[in-house]
Amino acid sequence: MGKKMIITIVGLLLLASFALADVIVEDNMVSFYYDNSSAKSVYLAGTFNDWDPKAIPMKNENGEWFVQLKLKPGVYEYRFVVDGTKWVEDPDAWGRIESGLGGYNSVFVLKSRDGKLFVDIEASKNYGISKAKKANTQVVKPKEITLPKGYESNVVKDEKLAPHIVNGKVIFSFRAPDAQKVNLAGSFNNWGPEALGMEKKDGIWQAAVALED
Prior knowledge:
Layout: H1 3-20, E1 23-26, E2 29-35, E3 42-46, E4 59-61, E5 64-69, E6 74-82, E7 86-88, E8 95-98, E9 104-113, E10 116-119, H2 121-134, E11 164-166, E12 169-175, E13 199-201, E14 204-209
Antiparallel strand pairs: 1-2, 2-5, 3-6, 4-5, 6-7, 6-9, 8-9, 9-10, 11-12, 12-14, 13-14
């Protein structure tokens, strides 16, 4: 077998391996793919959008969900949000890292060379492994928030306001009858201040969240 033939075969194998990945770079745009023919909706959430579950909808083409993003070089974690409640790890991700919530986030390392973006495969794999070992020592601290005058911290004086489970979801409650808007932030949404809006009823703001163990 000639040298050129060997190089050609190796090149085809490399292309085939890239085709199996769900995150690839096309024309300097990062393309995300997810196969799920039974899903009614799929959104992309990650560190690039503060884990907002409704910011980036994916398009469905015969059961394959797709979206393109313009990203700068860096390390990105992400998940797919299926049917509004299920946070799904990419089964074909370049790397994975412990989320700190009992599951894993998909991760990839995006680099640039000569003005062209590419996914560093080895760095993606090694990043996930090395960061996972340190996950127990890393603590995400909430952002400092100054409450308006007349508001008190949400000390649970009423058992009805304490977090409880209904139909498999955790119900969070907060009494603020004069507030115009309340959002729920925590380690489950990377402390995104605008990621999860609460609904008001009789002066009580509530949000139902599906959480992992």
